[in-house]
Amino acid sequence: MPSRPDAITLETPCDVTVLPGFEEGHVSVQDEAAQLSAVLLGPVLAPRPGAHVLDACCAPGGKTAHLLEQFDINLTAIDSDNQRLARVEDTLSRLGVEAVLEHADATERDWWSGTPFDAILLDAPCSGTGVIRRHPDIKKLRRKDDIRPLAKLQRQLLDNLWPMLREGGTLLYATCSVLPEENGEQIEAFLARTPDAHITTPNDVAWGINSGAGRQLFPAQNSHDGFFLCQTRKAICLGAS
């Protein structure tokens, strides 16, 4: 996968706190595949200064910060884990960017003001099988029985968040998984029950492979994690003439 234009790769690994400029907010550490979330949302957000954006399941905040650094947006970031949400707050403070942070469950709507979002990033909880190159112990820790409840949660998140998206808005679904049940099959089922969802995932890109309606990246040695991305657009309903 080509390197991201705003990213560098260190020749030698080191503790993030010793990176020149880290404490001053000049650099952040993020997997190369994860950075594609901002790349895909760029054509949607760049032409819309002040866009109303939701980052669901946002902790630990790498993608949250990347979006805020790249685009002029009003971002709400939610997570159900208060301790992990505190990490997001620390990251945004270090970088000097701001978002509305909410301790909230993205399968519920009691936190939502009712104002539709122009774009939603759903970085869904998943099996984490895509990070196996960095955490090989996941082969022993993850069980087959773990996948069904995760897929159910992902389905609940998609169905709950979709009505919060404005007509013509974009939802980007992402996981750090390589399993079809959480990725291509999950999206195909979502499309079957969501008639106003239309795929806008680009095919003319130099990364990943087609996986149903999305793009799947597999772990690459000395490069990126496994990752899945799928972009959908909500149809605009035309009134009767």
* Radius of gyration over C-alpha positions, nearest whole angstrom: 18 Å
Mean pLDDT: 90
Described by its quaternary structure, the protein is: single chain
Taken in chain order, the helices and strands follow as HEHEHEEHHEHEEEE
Strand-residue fraction?
15-25%
What ranges have pLDDT less than 50 throughout 5 or more consecutive residues? none
Please report the total strand number as a whole number: 9
Question: Which secondary-structure class do the elements indicate?
Answer: alpha/beta
Q: So, the CATH homologous superfamily?
A: Vaccinia Virus protein VP39
Q: What is the top-level CATH class? A: Alpha Beta
CATH architecture: 3-Layer(aba) Sandwich
Summed up, the domain count is 1
Shape descriptor: globular
What is the CATH T-level topology? Answer: Rossmann fold
SS field, number of helical segments: 6
- Share of helix among residues? 25-40%
What's the layout of helices and strands?
Elements: H1 36-45, E1 51-56, H2 62-70, E2 73-79, H3 82-95, E3 100-103, E4 117-123, H4 138-141, H5 144-161, E5 165-175, H6 184-193, E6 197-199, E7 209-211, E8 214-217, E9 227-234
Helix pairs in contact: 2-3
